[in-house]
Backbone:
């Protein structure tokens, strides 16, 4: 039963299994365990980023290609829902239209980019995606009539997802309102998407991807059209990222370039996947949880160090709370050198 | 190969084609000079990157770090020499800019040496790791810039002698842009002479084509590569310093922003080709300025469109490098 | 017998996942021309590349002039006085004929007398002196590749299939040139498919089969033993008449 839900891809490490169960259960009961708007927000972000990182891992870890355009697809999904909710009003029809439109655009774009540049080489693809993504981000902030420009869009969610909507009194002291419903919508959808991704990477299609990653020439010689497989993989990744974006838009009732399209988010995803462990979906899960936590709590830790060093000029700056990315960047580089399989790889080794 | 003039003709073709669209000849001249200035600054930053890729198949996604460092170092020196910058003498102005630019190049070059050692060398030949690690290098470098220079942007103003414009009737040409064009052309000429007229240049060109055979002839291509990497970093620093003065502000994100243009340029030019990089840079600079005038909203998209068109015409870029 | 100039002992080379050389052993005596023969895919090119340090030897030892050169960096090996003409020729297409040779003359300006000597053998190089090498014909590229190896005196020349695509008159010139070289300053190790050429020029022979040296000896004896040729090279009885 469990085996088939996880597509035969078991954690294969006691600690990893424990961590995964903790995340699964922790997120499921988060609204009751840590009540309050802010912590609910963190939990929802974690769900969304788990999906986003996992879909990126399909490219980076399983297919061996680096795309810097992943946030572009994330943004397309988010803006799809945001724009349709703004234009069509706060109904489920708008959500459906926005999601589908975002999905289609993401898939079309991914196909074009893939066919254009995947036949060449990894480096080329990485450069092209970087260029396209940055142009897209600028375009999105320029077309302010449609996208709201730098400020982004603020819109109303469907009635059932608003705080004012209530479907009962309280449970364990938590109000049963639309936000709670919204959270469980995000949670369930994310869980489902992760299971779908697990199924994909453990299917014959996934094996071909990994064969191509290991030796593209050989795979081509055996008769696999590597360009086609890689393009399909990048379409699936793009579509999943767009869905993650749609979920984010459905959660936060505002969408702007900083939260969806910026290069900073791209860097976050890279860190999640590499530190968590490339080439395993579980790595993306662990990495996403870790990074969102780090963003929220590493700062506090640094603030302590910063206070202690307050007199020392440069050193104090090194530990400034805003410099958390510096330390994660160093961790990232060390990971690539010394633990290319990331945290999950380490855990599985020690089994 | 036989000289291939076609891509070169694109530049005048683009200029002439833009004239009727823009209408006013005065605006056209202003935009063209602006485009050339921008293109040449990008060329300065991109030339080293394309050569290191050609030589060792290494693409440094952290190249933007050198651009940013150059901008910050130059800004610091110029701020320190503020009285000379604001003096009403072109010589004093130059006495401030000279050391600033020199310092930018030296610091970027030295940093390049370290970057090559620590970040690039351990991952030679492993493209995936190379992309990841050099991107990581960029992240860390950007944060370190904020540690050293603080998180806020630095405002710079151009020295007195480089403010304002030359006026010819109703045509206005900014002085600073003229300087940028001159410096860009000097760098291009120096690079072209080195590559075509010196033994070192021959080695680099041969190495871009077939590094293994250059080694079999008894030359240590690794050293050549490190040298080119350092020079390329120093040039990125020079370009960054010039870009900072051009924008009159410097932020830690400047490197990553400009690096995108740099990537587009070397893709258009053909990875590994300095000549292609030159043509590509001018095309990008001109297009950005023309489109910026005609349809400001899509200015950056225009570069992507340009890239797509070039790749449809020549999938390996304007001047594909004969590889192996 | 004096120590050979070049000797290989138990050399094993892997390319990627493939094990290509399974313990190659042979000697090249100083001052002669050794022919390295073998069927397609026997491992001749791989052997030369391993000597040059362009593939790593996983095991075994390669000695040159009494010194262990196994897995030394390629440029250092070249600097000991070994020149290499690869099967693919690897001329620099973007550079002119002149520039190709300028680079090959590592120690400084080219010696005009030597250049004239090369022009005498390979007249086309003089004619196309300023032409980008990429525009040369296949045979002309081959001449340039050989010229690059001999533009300065080298102790050992490793030449992979020099006669490929050359007209008979040029092959005759090449035979002359190689004779002069081996009788003078250099030792040659030449991979060849053209057995007529090999027989005319070779002093000794090493025959490879499936990643090993299956036979080594004098050329005269080998040329006389058609059964052995048949066995090792699969030559028909009439191809070497
Ligand atoms: N880069 C490579 N990757 C994988 N296998 C290779 C590679 N280069 C050579 N081989 C294999 O190694 C074996 C020996 O090749 P090698 O080129 O040394 O043969 P050769 O004797 O020079 O043949 P020929 O006479 O055809 O030139 C062949 O089976 C070949 O397929
Ligand atoms: Mg061969």
Residues:
């Amino acid at each position: 039963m469990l085996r088939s839900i996880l597509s035969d891809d078991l954690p294969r490490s006691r600690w990893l299994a424990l961590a995964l169960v903790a995340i699964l259960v922790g997120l499921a009961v988060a609204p009751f365990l840590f009540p309050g708007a802010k912590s609910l927000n963190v939990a929802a972000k974690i769900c969304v980023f788990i999906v986003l990182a996992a879909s990126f891992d399909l490219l980076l870890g399983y297919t061996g290609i680096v795309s810097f355009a992943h946030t572009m697809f994330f943004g397309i999904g988010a803006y799809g829902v945001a724009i349709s909710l703004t234009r069509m009003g706060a109904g489920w029809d708008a959500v459906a239209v926005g999601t589908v439109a975002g999905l289609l655009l993401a898939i079309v774009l991914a196909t074009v980019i893939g066919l254009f540049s995947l036949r060449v080489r990894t480096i080329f693809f990485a450069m092209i995606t970087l260029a396209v993504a940055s142009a897209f981000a600028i375009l999105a902030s320029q077309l302010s009539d449609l996208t709201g420009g730098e400020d982004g869009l603020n819109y109303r969610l469907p009635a059932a997802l608003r705080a004012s909507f209530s479907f009962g009194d309280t449970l364990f002291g938590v109000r049963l309102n639309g936000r709670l419903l919204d959270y469980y919508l995000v949670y369930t959808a994310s869980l489902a998407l992760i299971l779908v991704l697990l199924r994909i990477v453990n299917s014959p299609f996934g094996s071909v991807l990994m064969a191509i990653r290991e030796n593209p020439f050989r795979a081509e010689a055996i008769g696999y059209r590597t360009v086609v497989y890689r393009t399909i993989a990048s379409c699936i990744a793009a579509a999943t990222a767009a869905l993650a974006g749609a979920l984010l838009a459905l959660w936060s009732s505002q969408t702007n370039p900083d939260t969806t399209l910026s290069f900073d988010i791209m860097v976050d995803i890279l860190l999640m996947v590499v530190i968590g462990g490339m080439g395993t979906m579980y790595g993306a899960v662990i990495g996403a949880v870790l990074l969102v936590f780090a963003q929220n709590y590493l700062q506090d830790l640094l603030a302590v160090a910063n206070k202690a060093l307050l007199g020392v000029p440069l050193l104090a700056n090194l530990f400034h709370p805003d410099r958390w990315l510096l330390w994660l960047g160093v961790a990232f580089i060390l990971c690539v050198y010394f633990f290319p399989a990331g945290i999950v790889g380490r855990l599985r080794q020690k089994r | 190969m036989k000289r291939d003039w076609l891509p070169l003709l694109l530049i005048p073709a683009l200029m002439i084609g833009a004239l009727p669209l823009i209408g006013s000849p005065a605006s056209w001249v202003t935009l063209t000079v602006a485009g050339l200035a921008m293109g040449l600054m990008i060329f300065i930053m991109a030339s080293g990157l394309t050569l290191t890729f050609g030589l060792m198949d290494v693409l440094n996604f952290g190249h933007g770090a050198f651009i940013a460092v150059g901008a910050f170092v130059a800004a610091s020196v110029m701020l320190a020499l503020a009285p000379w910058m604001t003096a009403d003498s072109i010589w004093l102005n130059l006495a401030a800019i000279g050391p600033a630019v020199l310092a930018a190049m030296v610091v970027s070059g030295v940093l390049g040496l370290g970057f090559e050692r620590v970040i690039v060398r351990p991952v030679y030949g492993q493209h995936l790791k190379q992309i990841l690690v050099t991107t990581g290098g960029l992240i860390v470098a950007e944060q370190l810039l904020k540690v050293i220079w603080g998180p806020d942007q630095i405002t710079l103003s151009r020295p007195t002698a480089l403010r304002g414009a030359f006026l010819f009737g109703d045509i206005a040409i900014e002085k600073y842009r003229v300087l940028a064009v001159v410096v860009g052309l000097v760098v291009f000429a120096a690079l072209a002479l080195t590559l075509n007229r010196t033994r070192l240049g021959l080695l680099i060109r041969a190495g871009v084509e077939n590094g293994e055979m250059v080694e079999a002839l008894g030359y240590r291509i690794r050293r050549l590569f490190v040298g080119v990497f350092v020079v390329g970093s120093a040039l990125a620093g020079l370009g960054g310093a010039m870009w900072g003065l051009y924008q009159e502000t410097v932020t830690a994100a400047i490197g990553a922003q400009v690096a995108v243009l740099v990537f587009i340029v070397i893709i258009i030019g053909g990875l590994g080709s300095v000549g292609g990089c030159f043509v590509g840079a001018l095309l990008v600079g001109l297009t950005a300025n023309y489109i910026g005038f005609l349809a400001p909203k899509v200015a950056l998209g225009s570069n992507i469109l340009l890239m797509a068109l070039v790749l449809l015409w020549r999938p390996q870029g304007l001047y594909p490098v004969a590889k192996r | 017998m004096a120590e050979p100039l070049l000797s290989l002992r138990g050399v094993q080379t892997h390319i990627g996942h493939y094990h290509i050389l399974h313990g190659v052993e042979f000697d090249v005596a100083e001052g002669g021309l050794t022919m390295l023969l073998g069927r397609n895919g026997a491992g001749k090119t791989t052997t030369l590349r391993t000597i040059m340090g362009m593939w790593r030897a996983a095991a075994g030892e390669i000695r040159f002039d009494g010194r262990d050169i196994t897995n030394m960096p390629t440029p250092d090996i070249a600097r000991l006085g070994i020149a290499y003409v690869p099967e693919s020729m690897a001329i620099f297409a973007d550079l002119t004929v002149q520039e190709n040779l300028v680079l090959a003359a590592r120690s400084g300006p080219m010696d005009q007398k030597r250049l004239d000597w090369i022009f005498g053998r390979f007249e086309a190089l003089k004619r196309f002196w300023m032409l980008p090498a990429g525009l040369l014909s296949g045979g002309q590229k081959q001449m340039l590749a050989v010229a690059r190896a001999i533009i300065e005196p080298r102790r050992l020349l490793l030449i992979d299939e020099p006669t490929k695509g050359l007209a008979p008159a040029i092959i005759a010139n090449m035979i002359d040139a190689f004779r002069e070289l081996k009788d003078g300053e250099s030792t040659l190790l030449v991979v060849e498919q053209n057995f007529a050429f090999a027989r005319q020029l070779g002093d000794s022979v090493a025959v490879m089969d499936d990643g090993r040296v299956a036979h080594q000896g004098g050329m005269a004896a080998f040329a006389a033993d058609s059964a052995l040729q048949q066995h090792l090279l699969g030559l028909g009885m009439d191809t070497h008449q």
Observations:
- The pocket of adenosine-5'-triphosphate (ligand 1) is lined by residues C 15-16, 18, 20, 38, 40-46, 87 (CB under 6 Å).
- Residues 199 and 223 of chain C are 7 Å apart (CA to CA).
- Confidence is low (pLDDT under 50) at residues 237-241 of chain C.
- Chains C and A do not touch (no CB pair under 8 Å).
